Write the structure tokens for this entry.
Amino acid sequence: MASLPSVVVLISGSGTNLQALIDATQQGTLKAKIACVVSNRQKAYGLERARLAGIPTETVSLKKFKDQGLAREDFDDAVGKMIVEKFNPTLVILAGWMHILSPRFLAHFERDNVMNLHPALPGQFDGAHAIERAFEAYQKGEIEHTGIMVHKVIADVDRGQVILQQPVPIEKTDTLEDLEQRIHKAEHQLIVKGAQVFLDQLTSS
């Protein structure tokens, strides 16, 4: 049997989307091996999820770079270089990675094989606080529903080619927490589906 394509997952927090990816690889619904989980926060619970699944972890610190008088772009460059040199993955997945990556990071991935999950539909709520902004827009009658997408990462935030997207309804009785829970549940499914679609594209090209 051919070896499975490798994936590196970048996280910053609790890692619920990472857990969905781990579960999918263990169940065989995502035909890949997670080679490493990288976090830019030492206390991210996602690191513990990785350890429990026997997945290697790396922690990187922007603060350490800045303390040495280096720039954010130097950090991005070092993280990209480390991922390629240590793991050379088929796919890199940003799963709640709360750090906008510069072209210096992306330059290490000539196949454009970096994927991000974003809790909004293409062109609707780019950047931070997308769920809160969608909820406010619904309250004002500006939108009838929101959605989620997985897309290729380019220098423009949340503007890369869409791999998959999915609408998510907003109910009149929803609190922000209700909407967040519905979106997160949908994300756990779409990140797995999107990763498989992208891997299929990468391994067939």
User: Anything to note?
Assistant: The beta strands are 6-11, 33-39, 57-59, 91-94, 114-118, 145-152, 162-169. The mean pLDDT is 95. The CA atoms of residues 4 and 32 lie 5 Å apart.
